[in-house]
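Subject: design request, 313 residues
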């Protein structure tokens, strides 16, 4: 486990979880995917997040995936790759149970969604009290996960994030903004010290604009397909080559928009098609798909990015 108090700046892949046809975890394909991500230069992996089908995994399966990732990365010579584990649950008690299990299995940070089952009761005050209660007893530091698409539309404000970060320094250390609100990212990044809080843009679609707004890198589903290409954009930005970075961002935006239309099983199908491991099998009700079943207007912009990925560094 890392001793870093803050997730390091960089590209993070919200790792998909591969399954066999009987819906058991495909450990070998998952390990192959972890290896390609690490060799592609990512800074970290987000395990059992939305793309990892967290709601479909048992507590023991969650621990198995974290242990497998940590052991495989160590074996491959990538001990510094950061592991962030999705630990969201409807109650404080269950969330803390997931966080404790993640810490025992080797995760560095927890990623926590707001509770959404009783969405009508989830006022900003209730949500802030939830995160405060989790932060007080969490075994590892946590990042707030703002993704209205999977939380009945709950959209955590910049005011709430800033208050929580200031109230729990060293315990609430970041936020993932899949909401795509760059103004929110800008407000959070400018209100909190860079050395104590890590705001992340949560999609490739706005990777470069997010960096300009103060993102600590990116946590992006498309990195499952093209980790090296995301790292390349990051380096172009750091090197001040905004023209080339903008051109690459355009390709990522078109590919990310296409990928967003195929669902989690579709992301896995694309990886399987272009990189020859795993399959487009999700746990029901997500079902199964293949890249051959996807229309050309979906595959074409994704293939453009895959072609860049296969060019090398």
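Subject: RE: design request

Done. Sequence follows.
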């Amino acid at each position: 486990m890392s001793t870093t108090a803050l997730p390091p700046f960089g590209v993070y892949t919200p790792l998909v979880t591969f399954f066999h046809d009987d819906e058991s975890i495909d450990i070998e394909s998952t390990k192959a995917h972890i290896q390609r991500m690490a060799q592609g230069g990512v800074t970290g992996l987000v395990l059992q997040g939305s793309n990892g089908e967290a709601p479909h995994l048992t507590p023991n399966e969650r621990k198995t995936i974290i242990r497998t990732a940590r052991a495989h990365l160590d074996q491959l010579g990538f001990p510094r790759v950061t592991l962030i584990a999705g630990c969201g649950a409807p109650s404080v008690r269950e969330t803390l149970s997931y966080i404790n299990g993640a810490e025992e299995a080797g995760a560095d940070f927890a990623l926590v969604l707001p509770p959404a089952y009783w969405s009508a009761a989830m006022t900003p005050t209730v949500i802030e009290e939830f995160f405060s209660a989790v932060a007080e007893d969490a075994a590892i530091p946590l990042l707030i996960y703002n993704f209205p698409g999977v939380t009945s539309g709950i959209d955590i404000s910049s005011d709430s994030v800033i208050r929580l970060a200031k109230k729990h320094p060293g315990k609430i250390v970041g936020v993932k903004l899949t909401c795509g609100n760059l103004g929110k990212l800008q407000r959070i990044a400018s209100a909190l010290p860079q050395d104590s809080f890590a705001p992340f843009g949560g999609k490739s679609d706005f990777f470069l604009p997010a960096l300009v707004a103060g993102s600590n890198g990116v946590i992006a589903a498309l990195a499952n397909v093209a980790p090296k290409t995301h790292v390349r954009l990051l380096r172009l930005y750091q090197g001040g080559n905004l023209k080339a970075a903008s051109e690459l961002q355009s390709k990522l935006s078109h590919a990310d928009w296409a990928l967003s239309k195929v669902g989690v099983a579709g992301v896995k199908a694309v990886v399987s098609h272009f990189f020859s491991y795993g399959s487009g099998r999700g746990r029901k009700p997500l079902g199964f798909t293949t890249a051959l079943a996807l229309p050309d207007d979906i595959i074409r912009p994704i293939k453009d990015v895959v072609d860049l990925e296969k060019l090398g560094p």
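The first strand starts at residue 10 and ends at 14.
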